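note to self: dont lose this again. the chain is below, predicted strucutre after it. 274 aa total, dont forget to put it in the shared folder this time
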Amino acid sequence: MLAELEVLSKDLVDAPLEVRLQHFAHKLLGVAFGSWQDGSNLEAEDDFNYNLDCLDCVTYVEVVLALAKNVPGSNFVDLLRKIHYKDGVPNYLSRNHFVSLDWIPNNNFVVRDVTSNVALELQTATTTINKLNWLKKTKSEFNIPDYVLDSLQPKEVNSPYIATTHLLDNQSFYFDKFPEAGIACIVRPDWNMRDQIGTNLNISHLGFVFKDHVTQTLRFYHASGFVADEVATTDVPRKVLNTDFCEYLARFIDSPTIRGCNILSVTPGYYAGQ
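---
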């Protein structure tokens, strides 16, 4: 598949950034939902095993972002590694595991939070992410070094968001305010996941949002991994999908945990080689 994507990249060499992003996002539609088998060993110095035959919500976004850069000297694998890990250091502890705590701030060279610029009414989700509990629960089979344990202190994270009901009640306004090509993060304020992974979360899912100017709708490109009890139907495919973003949010209007979305824009300066 990478060869096909590289050909597409050459065909789009002069296209605007939002066009390149949407073409690559579209090209990956139908790819099966799945996690990469990388970063699983705490002691491995290079455990980066990307796989374009399966993508989860985060790796789908990462792959599209990496593919979209096409300036002299750019390299897809190198950029993907830089996005996937803090400072591009390919080991488990450097991986951007938590979207609100790790992925967004560590990728500020390629994305930025524009929720406050987009929102007519701004909400804030606050939680404490406890990496120490998470590591003990998810990697209990490893002998975790003391220096690692000492470095993982709980951190409070604040995630700005637009409430689902407010977005659905003001769809025309938000169509105009959203970036042409942005990233939407699904916000679950202080979502209690301690029994499952040892910590609470603010963000559970993300994907690209592109404007369709013909239908005046926002299109949500995302790798869907939802299970039956989280959606309105039991037959939602576990793969990369293109759906109407407002219809997607409306399915969760009665969710006890999903409250809205955080919006990121893609930094054009980086793609210009700056």
